[in-house]
Amino acid sequence: MPSATVLAPVTAARDIAAGLSATTAESETARRVAPAAVALLREAGLARLMKPTARGGEELPLRAQVMSCVETARGDAAASWLMMVCGAHDFVLGSFPDACLDEVFATGPDTLIAGTLAPQGKVTRADGGWWLEGRWQFCSGVDHSPWLMFGALQGDAADDADPWGAVHLMVPKEQVEVIDTWHVLGMRGTGSKDIAVHRVFVPLHRSVPTPALFTGRSPHARSALYRLPVLPSLASMGAGSVYGMAERAYEDYVARTRVRSDVLIGGGKAHHTGLQRRVAEARLELDAARRLLDDMCDRWDELQARDEPPVSPEMRVRIRLDAAYVVELCRRAVDRVFAVSGAHAVYDESGLQRAHRDIHTASHHAIFDFDMSTEFVGRTILGVDLGPEHAIS
Q1: CATH fold for the domain made of 113-208
Q2: d(CA 393, CA 315)
Q3: Do β-strands 113-126 and 147-154 pair in parallel, antiparallel, or remain unpaired?
């Protein structure tokens, strides 16, 4: 049974779900999370869950973040995604140097941290730091964040006496160009625009080598929480948001179908055997997804209590697959009921239509790549080496 400390933010998230839902139309139209939704997240304390306690945060177990994302997604997908992404970056920042955190959290613990973890940019050595340049995609929440987190590959590694290979860095937003590319199928309210950096100097204290950071071996990690691996943790948080979206869509469909009439032959749609079967099968898929989500949280609790980084590659890729499968089950369940939701579901004001778009869009995130994840786990089952390219998976 989760502790009261873990359950408190879940309850807080549930309490603001209706308020978040009221912001959905504004976020969709503006293609960024509505300021009112951001304010609700902050007022409920949900911007602090993954931040270090020394910086005014809660430093709660991953379960608190995952399950709070479930509840906020029942209200609004974009707000939940913003909370999930920024919380994930807070989690990563827990392994950055103190001097970096002094700068980033100078304005307080409710600061939202956007960015993009994929190493799409390039760094080269400079005196006391790095030169950073490049362009990154999918920077969710960039409109609300004064600081951005970047991943980059070291372009001069071959000539460096102490090469880092890949680096993650923090950069103030005023040194970044935001490029409005976010015209998309779903998740429109997340504002996940492109960002570009044109040769900016980043001091060394705002950087950490990616291999150590992503496997929980950063020398700056403040507690067992921050010594957990990054990518499986991010996948688990994201799966929580997608599951919440799917549950809301399913509940809306069931409520509408209970009172929906058949305009051609009369009677209620709820009496159709085919619909009954689809509802039951979608419920099975969502129940299986929830059990898997709970089991993943149990494993995170055990790994944090054990505090023995790095977590084995086999465990890391298995958790990523489980998260990807949660998303796959959610996508199937919503597809199943959307297919028989009737013509009214195609209108933009339909919550089911929006959930269908949002879940399909979210499922395209690289962290949920189901084929890649099944390949990795299949290799471990068959005794095939994962290879050095999967060292931070």
Answers
A1: Butyryl-CoA Dehydrogenase, subunit A; domain 2 (2.40.110)
A2: 10
A3: parallel
Tens of pLDDT, residues 112-155: 999 999 999 999 999 999 999 999 999 999 999 999 999 999 99
Q: Where are the alpha helices (DSSP H) in the chain?
A: 4-21, 24-30, 35-43, 62-75, 77-93, 98-104, 210-214, 230-259, 273-306, 313-338, 351-362, 370-382
- Asked whether the predicted pLDDT for residue 5 surpasses 90, the reply is no
Highest CATH level, class, for 4-99? mainly alpha
Pick one of 2.70.40.10, 3.30.70.250, 1.20.140.10, 1.10.606.20 as the CATH number of 228-390. Answer: 1.20.140.10
Beta bridge partner(s), residue 135: 196
Handedness of CA 383, 327, 369, 86 (dihedral sign): negative
Residue recorded with tokens 């970056």: 89
Q: How many residues does the chain have?
A: 393
pLDDT of residue 262: 75
pTM for the model stands at 0.96
Pairing verdict, β 113-126 and 129-139: antiparallel
Cα distances (Å, whole numbers) of residue 173 to 142, 178, 195, 197, 345: 8, 9, 10, 10, 40
